Amino acid sequence: MSQKPRDSGVPGFPSLFPAKEEPESPFYTMLRSAPPDYLAQRPEPVELPPAFPKYYFFYGTLTAPAQVKKILDLPEEPQLRAAEIFGYTLAKWGDYPALINGNQGDVVKGFAYLVQSEEEAQKLSYYETNAYEVAPCWISFKDEKEPKEASGKVFMYAGDAQALLEQRFDRKLWNRQMAGKLG
Question: Which residues form the Gamma-glutamylcyclotransferase AIG2-like domain (predicted)?
Answer without folding.
Answer: 56-174
